[in-house]
Amino acid sequence: MPNHRPADAPGQPPEPAPAGPEASPYWRVRRVVLGYALFASLWILLSDRLVNLLFQDTSLVMFASSMKGLVFVLITSGLLLATLNRAVRKLVAKTDELRTSEQKFSNIFHLSPDAIDLSRLRDGAILECNGSFEKLYGFGRAEVLGHSSLPADLGIWVDPADRTRHGDRLRTEGVVLGHEAVMRRKDGSVFVALLSSALLEYRGELCNLTLARDITAQKGVEEALRESNQRLELATASGSLGIWDRPRRGGAEIWNDRMWELYGLAPQPVPPSYAAWLASIVHPDDREATDAAIRNALAGTQPYDLEFRVVHPDGTIHHIKSNAQMIRDPQGAVVRLIGVNRDRTRKVEAEAEQRRLQTELMHAEKLDSIGSLAGGVAHDMNNVLAAIMGMASALRQACPEAEPRAAALDTIIRACTRGRDVVKSLLTFARKDLEAVGPLDLNSLAEEMVKLLRYTTLSRVQVRTDFQEPLALIEGDAGALNHALINLCVNAVDAMPEGGTLDLATRQAPGGAVEISIRDSGKGMGPELVRRSIEPFFTTKAMGKGTGLGLAMVYGTVKAHKGTIEIRSEAGQGTEVVLGFPPLAGAAAVQAPPPPRPAGPMAPIRILLVDDDELIRLSVGPMLAALGHQVETAESGQEALDRLQAGPGADLVILDMNMPGLNGAQTLARLLAIRPDQRVLMATGYSDDSIAPLLQDRPNVSSLRKPFSLDELRDKLADPGFPAPGAGG
């Protein structure tokens, strides 16, 4: 827009209204006229009287009168000149001031970056606009002057209702500040404008002076910021993140709502002070480390990356992961920390549970390894004991009762029997040895055990029982479970050397399991001792007082029954061991035994003894010979099969279960394939139950537990349930 304008263009400010009558130039003229009239009147009246008083001579009076007029003219002219000169100087000064003011207003009007227009209020006609108005709206000055912003004219208001509201406020209040409206340019594009207007009088008419500023970009930034805040709030809400802002010096800390939730608190207007937060929220054991980490971060010596615990008002402990960004001033000093907190409690608990399960798995694998080792040792020991017992039994059979060596042989046989019990314990620990398995009532089993021990082991403590009735049956080995319960009771009594209370209880758990618990009031154990308590050979008893196999064997027995064992204990609070077993789903059908055959002397038969252990072959052979039978031996399953196919066969095959190459089960299957009616006696170091699948639906196959004595071998061969000699090939 041109920088010049017409002389009376509305681009110059309107003349200011007089402050009072004395400020009007007309008042100055009137004041001069009145002063002149007053002076003239006084001069006429007083000068004539003064001349008459001073002069008596008529000629002098006439001369004085003439001079009086001249003096009057000179005085009044001087006074008038002084007055006019003063008035002219003031007028010139006012004119200069007005010109300066006009120039300032003109500069502001035309150089303002905001669009400015002056319009009549009555019809909206625009009287003047600046260059910024032309640039903002896209109209030239000539296109604007004399036109209005009405929709039918320039139409710069997108919503006519906005123009109406703006005008109504202006007429009512006289000033409108910060009115936002959507405006239209000449090319039809729209923008958001911030409008401010004021009423003023110009040339006797009420006019509207309006300033407009394009805030479209600012509104876009505000909208982007709002959307960013919404996304941030959504992210923090979905991530359950607490956001905080902690200044280094002065000022209150700022929390979002999630921070209050993380600490278990109801939102308040202002967060607690740092000292109160540290003393009442942070876990006592973590306060020192937390305080040091925050102070070091504010000092700028190390990044802030911290995990600490907090205590909720209800006493629960939560794990908090906290990270923060250090905000620095231009000199590099940290002025505040802005960070996020998140609750890691579930993850920490899950990690702890994973570690616990991993530990239990490693422990179970360790026990399985030791169990496998124990099973292997038991098998080898069984063979050694079988050889000793076999030779001793054969010698004892041939030894008269009166001979001194008879007693020695009986001692050897009894020692072998005791060794067999030890091997049985090892096999129990190895979870491979359950004797007679059948339906069991835990209540009856526990009651019998209490009766057995009441006057011996349990006599030193008070025994209380709480047995649930009725209680579902379980399937198990009564002897093994009884041994396990006795073991637990002995341990409980040993934990109460000065007496105490032993509680035995049974119950049906919600999941259906049948549970029995043994609880003592002894000294208890810490977590580490509880963890190690079922490790083989681990014991807290004095040297010579325990082997460390008691709980390990209980563990093996329970696992053999597909059960669970849980040990609950705290130092000084006693110990409780809970055994859980699956309920018996249904009793298996019991097949009627074959009709007994009459007992009598057994005729000699041909027996093929198959065992890879030379000790067994050298010891069991003489036992069978002592019973009058003809014995041949084979050291492998394949050798036995070859002999049976090549030779006349045997009335009975005694077959070892564990052999290299073809084991007992594989040899049995091939043997029965070529000789279906062959009588077979399976010799095993494990229980009969362990080879039950091999005996099912095979009436000519039976089993005998190693090691066995000559009498046990004779009884087995004479067992009515075992087919008579000659029944096989």
Give the helix/strand layout.
Elements: H1 25-54, H2 58-111, E1 115-120, E2 126-129, H3 131-137, H4 141-144, H5 160-173, E3 175-184, E4 190-202, E5 205-214, H6 216-238, E6 242-247, E7 254-255, H7 257-262, H8 274-280, H9 287-298, E8 304-311, E9 317-328, E10 334-343, H10 345-398, H11 404-429, E11 437-440, H12 442-453, E12 462-467, E13 474-477, H13 478-494, E14 501-508, E15 514-520, H14 527-532, H15 550-560, E16 564-569, E17 575-581, E18 606-610, H16 614-626, E19 630-634, H17 637-646, E20 652-656, H18 664-674, E21 679-684, H19 692-695, E22 701-705, H20 710-717
Parallel strand pairs: 12-14, 18-19, 18-20, 20-21, 21-22
Antiparallel strand pairs: 1-2, 1-5, 3-4, 4-5, 6-7, 6-10, 8-9, 9-10, 11-13, 14-15, 15-17, 16-17
Helix pairs in contact: 1-2, 10-11, 10-16, 11-15, 12-13, 13-15, 17-18
- The CATH architecture classification of the largest domain is 2-Layer Sandwich
Separation of the first and last Cα atoms: 130 Å
The major β-sheet equals:
5 strands, antiparallel
What class do helices, strands and sheet pairing give?
alpha+beta
Q: Which word captures the global form?
A: rod-shaped
- Let me know the average pLDDT: 80
CATH superfamily placement of the largest domain = Histidine kinase-like ATPase, C-terminal domain
User: What is the total number of structural domains?
Assistant: 5
- Secondary structure tally, helices: 20
- Indicate the proportion of strand residues: 15-25%
Strand order of the largest sheet: 2-1-5-4-3
Say how many strands there are: 22
CATH fold field value of the largest domain: Heat Shock Protein 90
Kindly provide the radius of gyration, computed on alpha-carbon positions and rounded to a whole number of angstroms: 59 Å
Percentage of residues assigned to helices: 40-55%
